[in-house]
UniProtKB/TrEMBL annotation:
It comes from Melghirimyces algeriensis. This is Glycine betaine/proline transport system substrate-binding protein. One of its GO terms (biological process) is glycine betaine transport. Its main location: membrane. It is found in: Cell membrane. The chain crosses the membrane at residues 7-25.
């Protein structure tokens, strides 16, 4: 065999092996090539962590390099408005994120709704004998933490916390609002329920806690927390030109309580969010394929 013939055989073998690798992965070369870097801005809410990691998994499958930036709510809006973040998956409108939207509406682009019918407010375990925010003062001794009646909140600067500050003022509540985080709040809620003690927290749905525990929203006669809302995504200006196929996928994206609930549950059970998201994507391939048409 001549040296030239040997080179041809080696070259063909390399092509065959390469083809087998592409075939066995289930992806085309077009899908797996590097399509650029995308930065997603998220805040530390259970469903936000879940869907952000889900999109990281899906986009990396399609050849994008994905970076997740965990920030508080205000910096997420600022980051998208300045172009430092490409998109953020969770915007609550028309009420919760209205202050941020009014400030940045000329500098961000809102995408389509992917979840309909949220709730937001003060929540207690079902066994707590309080049904309305108006009843809290009369039962404030039940909710003492460190010698002061308290509401366990989440991150400072979020719309949820700002509305809760309004609730305390307008209902005249003799309560402190504890600043913590989403995970810290649910940890306190879990501990109180295990000890069957009263606790009042800021909470919202969609959230895995409503599947895990028997909870109830306190009635809000003044409607400070507002009516049911929808969740949509937002992106920086120019995003649709830089990532037209991604824009299409995000607009195809729709979830409900069942699909989002199972995703959050996988994230919660996993030792890291991306691992949980990968398992959920594998188990829900038919659904995600509808988005990625």
């Amino acid at each position: 065999m001549t040296g030239k013939a040997r080179q041809v055989i080696i070259f063909v073998a390399i092509l065959l092996v390469g083809g087998l690798i592409w075939y066995s992965s289930g992806m085309t070369k077009e899908e797996t090539k590097d399509k650029g870097e995308v930065t997603i801005g998220l805040n530390n809410w259970a469903e936000n962590i879940a869907v952000s990691n889900m999109w990281k998994v899906l986009l990396e499958e399609k050849g994008y390099e994905v970076k997740l930036m965990s920030l508080e709510k205000a910096p997420v809006w600022t980051g998208v408005a300045t172009g430092d973040l490409d998109f953020s998956p969770e915007i609550w409108l028309p009420h919760t994120d209205k202050p941020f939207y009014e400030k940045y509406k000329d500098d961000v682009v809102l995408g389509d709704t992917w979840y309909e019918g949220t709730n937001l407010g003060l929540v207690v375990p079902e066994y707590v004998d309080v049904d309305s925010i108006e009843d809290l003062n009369a039962n404030k001794e039940q909710f003492e933490r460190g010698g002061k009646p308290s509401i366990v909140g989440i991150d400072a600067g979020t719309s949820t916390m700002k509305m809760t500050e309004d609730v305390i003022e307008k209902y005249g509540l003799d309560f402190d609002l504890i600043v913590s985080s989403g995970p810290a709040m649910t940890s306190e809620l879990d501990k109180a329920i295990k000890d069957k003690k009263p606790i009042v927290v800021t909470l919202w749905n969609p959230h895995w806690a409503f599947a895990e525990y028997d909870l109830k929203y306190l009635k809000d006669p003044k409607n400070i927390y507002g009516d049911k809302e929808n969740i949509q995504y937002m992106h920086r200006k120019g995003f649709e030109k830089d990532f037209p196929e991604m824009k299409k996928w995000l607009n195809n994206w729709e979830m409900d309580d069942q699909s989002l609930g199972t995703l959050m549950d996988e994230i919660r059970k996993a030792d890291d969010p991306e691992k949980g998201a990968k398992k959920w994507v594998k188990d829900n391939r038919d659904l995600v394929d509808q988005w990625l048409k």
